Amino acid sequence: MSATAMSLRSGWRGLAFIAIPVTAIAIFLFYPAALSIIGTLVRPAPGGGYTFSLQSYIFFFTDSYSLANLARTLWTTVVTLVLLIAVNLPIALYMRFTKGRLAAVIQALALFPMFVPGIIICYALIRYMGPNGWLQSLLSLVGFHHYASPHLTPWGPVVGLIWDGMPLTLLILISGLSNVSDASIEAARDVGAGRLRILVSIITPEITHSLLIVSALNFLGIFGQVLMPFMLGPTNPEMMGPFMLRTFSSVRDPLQASTQATITFLICSLAGVAYVRSIARRQREDRT
Amino acid sequence: MSTLELENLGKKFGAVVALEPLSLRISDGELICLLGPSGSGKSTLLRIIGGFEMPTGGKVLIDGADVARTPPEKRPTAMVFQSHALWSHMTVEGNIGFGLKLRGLKKAEIAAKVDAALRLVGLADYGKRHPAQLSGGQRQRVAIARCLVLEPKILLMDEPFASLDQHLRDRLREEVRQIQKKLGITTVFVTHGQDEALSIADRIVVMSMGRIEQVGTPAEIYTYPQTPFVAGFIGDMNMLKAVVTSGAARVGDVQLDAPVPDGEALFAVRPEDVTLTPSLNGEGVRVRRIVNYGPVLKIEAEMPDGTLWKVQTLKDVPVTEGACYHPIVSRHIVFREDRAVHRVDPV
Ligand SMILES: Nc1ncnc2c1ncn2[C@@H]1O[C@H](COP(=O)(O)OP(=O)(O)OP(=O)(O)O)[C@@H](O)[C@H]1O
Ligand SMILES: [Mg+2]
């Protein structure tokens, strides 16, 4: 059998393996998603039949309330993402370059949120940092009475989302850092680089791939969040997640809810594309 | 140029003594090989010289100045690591020029120096490549260029070619030797391959269990080992235990002179210092195996009491497997209490 025929055959066999999951995804995910996206664009015409219409999108982008919600969502996403990296990178660096019991304890603490359901995190945070919560009581014990709770302010969901996103972020950063060999850092010291220089010129470039993955995955996770902003955040403006939920179930406007969902989907797919491209580039580099 | 002196340099990792306090003088332009089995403290010593480990005590003097507490980024040393120490996100030029950039040199100056360094290691056209696009040998050349471009006083190499195949290793070793000679740079080279050490070193430092066993030229180390460890570690050696009585010992029917007080002693005999003459009465050694190594034969022979003899002869000496021979020893060394106490050389 010729080589091409062979690879064609094994190509078909490969496809057969993934046929079932792909079909399931197509039927239960792509098809309904496509239906609702099309539903936002193609509307029943008054005199019967269908017409193409951007009306619902025009409404969204001219409605200051919707725009404020979108802006709040972007703000929350970006702020949370930046803080997640700012908090986790030093921890990951510490754990990469320190061995010992303290590093293990810190790792366990940082991974702990992974095992706590989001709803419990929400209630715990409310009890801890909400008005009249633990934090306030503790602070007033030491004579500090001006504590303003972040609960129900834009910072509420940020705190919750950082909690929630920490384990994944840390794990990815640590795995990225573990690819930076001791020798390559020692070599940098050897030619005269100080700590900061090594961080900027050696470590960061070597982990850009991990940083990209962390950013893309967290972006996707944060942008579409419902629970944290719903439980911890303000109601006006609010994030897209609770906004969609309310538009759908309280306002009972499925068209506008689908429109919001489509816009959310488009923005998230940008992050998705960045993620996929980064993975593809990494595979190309590994092959050379 | 530069001398390197180590004074009472010792290192403990917790309770583990990696290096017992040792002293060593390396003169300007010398290539020293640290040779020893795994775990003997070679890397530890090298890393202390480079500043990557702090010694528990002692001094590291470069041109008379103690740098034992100076961090590596401030030392006039440069190190070639065993593997994977290139920065994969930088090109070859970027790797070599990084240290120069840190020193604030101008772009044109850096380019010229990088170019010269690449030429020196024979990679003139490879500057724009990334490390992933180079072979293992080329990567180590880049690593060497990265060190040399900074014109360090001391060049340190920790088994730089251990991950390469034999043929390439031999070639790079020769190249390193030539470059080192040309630049006259004082070099400390770690290896656990005795061939490597014997072929490039000006002097060899044989180490074992954190101690220096012997320091000497390759010829001295090979011909006059001062301890049984060195005798057994470098090259092939017959190590024979025997009891000395009135100035001589007998191993089977072989008599070995030993003008030392009576008692047990250890005799070291090189395989090439043994000649076999046919034995008619079936005494002596019986040849068990002959291996043909190009110009020489390596022979394994056994005495009736089970003592094994390694013998090396020229190819044209007629020896047959299964036949018996008298071994005649032309040179041997006598050890007692782990020191060489007597040597017999051929007349
Ligand atoms: N960071 C460390 N912590 C504890 N012990 C160490 C450390 N580094 C080295 N040692 C110990 O010090 C001793 C010497 O190690 P070293 O790496 O210098 O040996 P080596 O001669 O380079 O061996 P090899 O040929 O295997 O590289 C060993 O017993 C080793 O276990
Ligand atoms: Mg070593």
What is the topological layout?
The complex is a heterodimer of chains A (about 290) and B (about 350).
Chain A: H1 3-41, E1 42-44, E2 50-52, H2 55-62, H3 64-97, H4 101-111, H5 118-129, H6 134-141, H7 155-178, H8 182-190, H9 195-206, H10 208-223, H11 227-232, H12 240-249, H13 254-287
Antiparallel strand pairs in A: 1-2
Chain B: E1 4-13, E2 16-26, E3 31-35, H1 42-50, E4 57-62, E5 65-66, E6 77-80, H2 92-102, H3 107-120, H4 136-148, E7 154-158, H5 166-183, E8 186-191, H6 194-200, E9 203-208, E10 211-216, H7 218-223, H8 228-233, E11 238-245, E12 248-251, E13 254-257, E14 263-269, E15 274-278, E16 285-293, E17 296-302, E18 308-314, E19 324-329, E20 332-336, E21 339-344
Parallel strand pairs in B: 3-8, 3-9, 6-7, 7-8
Antiparallel strand pairs in B: 1-2, 1-4, 4-5, 9-10, 11-12, 11-14, 12-13, 14-20, 15-19, 16-17, 16-19, 17-18, 20-21
Notes on the protein architecture:
The complex is a heterodimer of chains A (288) and B (347). In chain A, helix 12 packs antiparallel against helix 13. Chain A is mainly α and 288 residues long. Chain A has helices at residues 3-41, 55-62, 64-97, 101-111, 118-129, 134-141, 155-178, 182-190, 195-206, 208-223, 227-232, 240-249, 254-287, and strands at residues 42-44, 50-52. In chain A, 77% of the residues lie in helices and 2% in strands. In chain A, a hairpin with a 5-residue loop joins strand 1 and strand 2. In chain B, helix 2 (92-102) packs across helix 3 (107-120), helix 2 packs parallel to helix 4 and helix 3 (107-120) crosses helix 4 (136-148). Helices cover 24% and strands 37% of the residues of chain B. In chain B, the strands form four sheets. A six-stranded mixed β-sheet of chain B has the order 6-7-8-3-9-10, with helices on both faces. Chain B has a six-stranded antiparallel β-sheet with strand order 13-12-11-14-20-21. Chain B has a five-stranded antiparallel β-sheet with strand order 15-19-16-17-18, with no helix packed on it. Chain B has two domains: 4-227, Rossmann fold; 236-344, no CATH class. With 347 residues, chain B is an alpha+beta fold. Chain B is built from eight helices and 21 strands. In chain B, a hairpin with a 2-residue loop joins strand 9 and strand 10 (211-216). Chain B starts with a strand and ends with a strand. The mean pLDDT of chain B is 93. Chain B is elongated and about 80 Å long. The complex binds adenosine-5'-triphosphate and magnesium ion. Residues 13, 16, 18, 36, 38-44, 192 of chain B line the site of adenosine-5'-triphosphate.
